[in-house]
Design a protein that fits this description.
With about 280 residues, this protein is an alpha/beta fold. The protein has 2 domains: about 170 residues, Rossmann fold (3-Layer(aba) Sandwich); about 90 residues, 2-Layer Sandwich (Pantoate--beta-alanine Ligase, Chain: A,domain 2). About 35% of the residues lie in helices and about 20% in strands. It is built from 10 helices and 10 strands. α6 packs across α7 and α9 runs antiparallel to α10. About 35% of the residues are buried. The mean pLDDT is about 95.
Length: about 280
């Protein structure tokens, strides 16, 4: 992969990377189109497909995470992607083991501030896995531009911080969330939502709409009050449980006491057994 990118660079082409875990949907394709726009017709777009074990906790859905490389490659071929980079676990983490004593892999990239809140509370080792694998992908693919989705707002903020702190020569682009017609943010995990759970999952969208509406009625509302209202709405669905809802400054992720226009709202909700996240600027 490095040899290929170096050749592309020698030939004067800009290189764009869209890191994914596969099982692609329209949201991923919008990132691919953004990458193409950024590097131009003569540029090269690489999509990485790798379900990264180090960002999943032992009880999470790593083994059942949906995978379909053949279908993904067909979709990407239609988009005119130049290369699909789909490494194996053994290539990414020598010895194939990531936590046990036998591992030959022992170097991680850790962002120490922004990773602690929200997703980091529920998933303490998650962002260490994300920053490590993204740093590895940057070193492997050597992109000029990398495109991430806004649905994972905290992830994108942490990656921007990592790029700045560690001087990666990569421009990070964060592209808008793509939604289903009923407002549910596209996610590979939506596949888990069967029957009425799919309908109940729209409660994340409805919770953000309710916060927008509340802010229209009064210009400033206490975060505590909005959190309580959000919890009530989420828990009106029989199979939905609020993991967290947070109101914060978008750059620093610092929580605010009073919510006004421009503050970002993020929430994680477990619907049935599926954990969904979403966020938006109010
Ligand atoms: O957002 C994702 O799909 C993953 O966290 C990423 C960035 C591909 C790293 O594994």
């Amino acid at each position: 992969m490095q040899r290929l990118t170096k050749k592309w660079h020698r030939d004067g082409a800009h290189v764009g990377l869209v890191p994914t875990m596969g099982y692609l949907h329209e949201g991923h394709l919008s990132l691919v189109r953004e990458a193409r726009k950024r590097v131009g017709k003569k540029g090269k777009v690489t999509v990485s497909i790798y379900v990264n074990p180090t960002q999943f906790a032992p009880a999470e859905d790593f083994s059942k995470y949906p995978r379909d490389l053949k279908r993904d490659c067909a979709m990407l071929r239609k988009e005119g992607v130049d290369v699909v980079f789909a490494p194996t676990d053994g290539e990414m983490y020598p010895a194939g083991s990531t936590g046990g004593e036998a591992t030959l892999f022992s170097t991680y990239v850790v962002e120490e501030k922004l990773s602690k809140a929200m997703e980091g509370v529920s998933r303490p080792a998650h962002f260490r896995g994300v920053t490590t694998v993204v740093a590895k992908l940057f070193n492997l693919v050597l992109p000029d531009v990398a495109v991430f989705g806004q649905k994972d707002f905290q992830q994108a903020t942490i990656i921007r911080r990592m790029v700045r702190d560690l001087n990666f020569p990569v421009r990070v682009i964060v592209a808008p969330t793509v939604r289903e017609a009923d407002g549910l943010a596209m996610s590979s995990r939506n596949k888990y939502l069967e029957g009425d759970l799919r309908r109940q999952a729209t409660v994340l969208r409805r919770a953000m709409d309710a916060a927008h509406a509340a802010l229209k009625r009064s210009k400033k509302i206490s975060a505590a009050r909005l959190k309580a209202d959000t919890r009530k709405l989420i828990e009106s669905e029989p199979d939905a449980r609020l993991d967290y809802v947070e109101f914060f400054e978008p750059e620093t992720l610092a929580p605010v006491a009073d919510v006004s226009t421009g503050v970002r709202m993020a929430l994680a909700v477990v619907v049935g057994k599926t954990r969904l996240i979403d966020n938006e600027t109010l």
